[in-house]
User: What shape does this take?
Amino acid sequence: MKKTVPLPRIGMRVIKTAVAVMVSYLLFVPFGLLYREELGGILGQMGPLYACIACIICTQSTLGQTFQQGISRLIGVIVGGALGTATLLLGPALDNPWVKIPVLGAVCVAGVWLCLLIKRPTACGMACILPCVILITGVTGVTRYYYAAARMIETVVGLLIALGVNAALPDYRPETERGESDMNVELHNTTRKLCVIGDPVGHSKSPLIQNTMLKALGLDYVYLCQPVPRGKCKEWLDCAKFAGYAGFNATMPHKEELVPLMDQLDQDARLIGAVNTVCIREGKAYGYNTDGEGFLRALADEGIHPAGKTVAVLGAGGASKAVCLKLAQAGAQVIVCNRTLDKAQAICAHDPAHLRPVGFGPEELAQAAGACDLLVNGTSLGMEGSGGQFADFSFLDSLKEGAPVVDLIYAPAQTELLRQAKLRGHQTVNGLGLLVNQAVLSLEYFTDTSIDAAEMKKVLAEVL
Ligand code: ATR
Assistant: This one.
């Protein structure tokens, strides 16, 4: 089978480095590219090499880091140059290798010690390299002074070029897939850990959503993606406690498995029988479910208030269950339509006064649509990658005028169901609001901070 090797991506760092190196070469062309001793003095020792090294190192980072890297490099060059040239005081004795080698060792140790003393560990390399170059190359006599001075000038020139290029060119990274955006997570020793667990979990948008919010809010947490095999929640929970996690979210298939493992469950997790948010406080696990409340908040954001209304919910999977039970709790009458009737019946058994199960045939769908004030799709039909689609949308013709249609799916942003409902003049709402609201609620639990969901929606709209 033919295997394709992906080409390395050319990002702005590479472009900045190339521009900086080219500029430094162009600047040093008048000096003959290679050192030309016939020019005499410092000019005869001047070349682009040290400028290029400074450019390459410094354009690898942000402008602020460039400055710090540059200062360290300059300090290294000054320390190394000064110590290297100071060895000249030993005069012809340096020609004896029994003198030269220990002197070189002592000078390198002194350079490293000096750099560490002023807390510039990245300067150590240069502080050692320069004395080595000065003592080992064939440069002799007073030319060594010129040689050291030339290296310092080249480094300063390289740093100035790097700073200029880094400031002038944008901090752009090539866009690959939308949503794979750079999360730009900054880590410190104090950074607290959060994650999402699942099996599989690689596709989860939670790290992107949570890290974006954490960054916008300036909270010192990092949110990771942690695959946990089915049936291994107990082991994971012990690991998370031991590793000092502040908490985690759970997706398929762990939401139910976590319930008996919690030290304490909140009302919604108990009601829905599933945990999607776990906070670890002083070694104890607190389980929450933010799916149902996130859904109600997303409806409220759109001006939809289900209390006292009839709602048709299509589907009886985990997401639909949370939605149905919270709708019933909020005082709605819910018709649960599902292909597998048993699953709809199991949900309705929790609150028969508010929940009624029906099948998923065309007539049942049309009847439910005709009876409801709000229609919610909780099935995977129309979801990106699921392949499934409603057989027909004629049931939408039965909807009451003004009945909104909500889809829990957020990718694609407009499912065929929503498109068809919109064509028929209904208000439509996709799953993005639910996604954001449940994530905001989770983050509130994790960090014990109150968060402005409307503001977060704006921030997240740029990355989702
Ligand atoms: P989630 O936990 O995200 O809700 P799920 O548990 O896999 O996901 O539920 C998917 C829902 O979509 C179920 O209600 C499923 O119906 P079944 O319970 O009969 O499986 C529904 N669904 C998936 N494909 C469907 C299809 N082709 N026609 C009708 N319903 C479908």
User: Anything to note?
Assistant: The first strand starts at residue 192 and ends at 198. Confidence is low (pLDDT under 50) at residues 174-179. Residues 143-168 form the longest helix (26 residues).
